[in-house]
Write the structure tokens for this entry.
Amino acid sequence: MYYLGIDIGSLSCDAVIIDDNEKILAATVIPTGAKNREAISRSTREVINQAGIMEDDIKSTISTGYGRDRVEKRTGAVTEITCHARGIQAHNPDTRLLIDIGGQDSKSILLNAEGRVVDFAMNDKCAAGTGRFLEAMARALQVDIDELGELDHGAKDNLTLSSMCTVFAESEVVSLIADGVNVNEIVNGLNRSIASRTHSLVKRIYPEKNGLAIAMSGGVARNGGVIRALNATMGCSIFIPENPDTIGALGAAIIARERS
């Protein structure tokens, strides 16, 4: 039998199908858009087609993310914190601290040796440092968001933004461009600001500095510049799974199998 996990977030709807051995058969990421029910339907259809199975072959479906209750054919719904913890454990069982930066919020999650959540801290009051924040910065810099992760190369100054509020930061970036500041210095400043804010979130649940194995999930984990800044700020090497944006959906699929 097969098990489906659906993670419906503000920017993307992610779906993963696994088999009884927790082997990933298919995974998909599509934009959520304004109509999340349509995104859920499309992601489900696409992942089933990729897996080469029929919908009736799916024994159980677990949904997660802010729109988890919108998945009509779900067997159950589980918080994204639990699902991201289970998903990262499948990739790297040694992980004890998970940083998840999604479209509209950031989380730091402390795990025990069994991959269970011990504690967590969450920033869901503003979009600072999230996917939406980076989208706004890419617009201000007039670059594609996929290019943003490599534009910090060659930066030498330790520029730091004075505000992480999306509106004020976008205005500050525009002013820096007008002042003739190089794009790589601006992007490096953005990355360093995100890293500092993320580190503060981590210290809320784990103030120590010893060698915990740290991993990262969420779409922002695809941004190489942010990862480099985080590694430098936190003094470690953060593990990035192959498909960081589908970790929550993978965890949901694993929980679907376990509950069955």
